[in-house]
From TrEMBL:
Species: Sphingomonas sabuli
EC number: 3.7.1.3
PANTHER family for the chain: KYNURENINASE
Name of this chain's protein: Kynureninase
Pathway recorded for this protein: Amino-acid degradation; L-kynurenine degradation; L-alanine and anthranilate from L-kynurenine: step 1/1; Cofactor biosynthesis; NAD(+) biosynthesis; quinolinate from L-kynurenine: step 2/3
Amino acid sequence: MTLDDARARDRVDPLAFARDRFSIPEGLTYLDGNSLGALPRATAERVDTLVLDQWGKDLIAGWNDHGWIDLPKRVAARLAPIVGANADELLVADSTSVCLFKLLSAAVAARQGRSEILTVEGNFPSDRYVVRGLADMLGLNLRTVALADLAEAIGKNTAAVTLTHVDYRSGVRADMAAINAAARTAGALAVWDLSHSAGAVALGLHRDGCELAVGCGYKYLNGGPGAPAFLYVASHLQDALHPQPQGWLGHADPFAFADHYRPADGIARFITGTPSVIALAALDAGLAAFEGIAMADVEAKAQALVRFFLDAVGDALPLHGPTDLGERGSHVCLVHDEAYAIMQALIARGVVGDFRQPNLMRFGFTPLYTRYEDCWRAADALRQVLDKREYDEPRFRDLKAVT
Ligand SMILES: *Cc1c(COP(=O)(O)O)cnc(C)c1O
């Protein structure tokens, strides 16, 4: 496995053209797009126009004249083909954690009399905190099982099931169709977290019988730091749910300023408050980077990049999670007791991944802009850091606030 092999792959990569849609610093090997997507070239101008020309010149008229009020809908329309859903089943708002709370609380309220929420071991901490807090607030029982046991564990007493589609550490991709089928049979509602799937794998929310889901805007969707998240509610379920908090923009007629709340029809009832227009414009530019690109090609390249990287690393370090790439998403974690210091040494060499507790180095492969060359460079740098024990240097051992 040589640099020439990697470059030969890049030359015949059908998605190679998409890298030009991003602004990536020269010489940087960026394998952290699963934590913060790279900056699309179109974003700065988009945000600039919105701030200087629209807000700056037209002020409040922008809500009508520049269609700010409909921006969540337009962004949802761009997201729809990326996740395999209809635009009117998606809402872009809030953070992933807040979206999860909104959907999960609405789901359990729609299953009154059932006393249990089910989740999966090792789920993303924020998701675990949210579901724990909700269960405590409502006096429900929270049961945590291994992913392999989840479908069987869903029973008559289960109000809702929540899990992450692609695990943030192991990269395991859950069987969405099977778990949704089991939930439906038992009369429970499944709420999926697509944070590590949306923009990385070929999701088919309809195909896989998905009813409720949330996901992150700043990872593979390239919306920028703290970009709004999204939520998905299948059409048939929308009017049966009564999301909280019931804010004014989810009202059927917000500008009637009515005394009593009356939910809007459809997905609009899931909006709580005023959309974050500047952030939505940035996310819109991030999603536009997927234009004309089939998610099947994105997923195929993700797997090929992961395979290339793992082959280039060889057996230097153990892989966390399944070796069958068909069961994975688009990132890998390698295991080493000095994972944090090794990652810091890699970052000093211009290879950026991240560290996840307790001993994992995580590398994310973002098919729109990751090259095979990046995979090779990362594996090469890793080999050198290990061979020279660069991670022993004290400067690589200070734990930063964001890892
Ligand atoms: C990144 C991530 C989140 C992010 O949550 P925010 O509330 O948007 O910060 C949530 N869930 C998972 C699984 C994630 O990977």
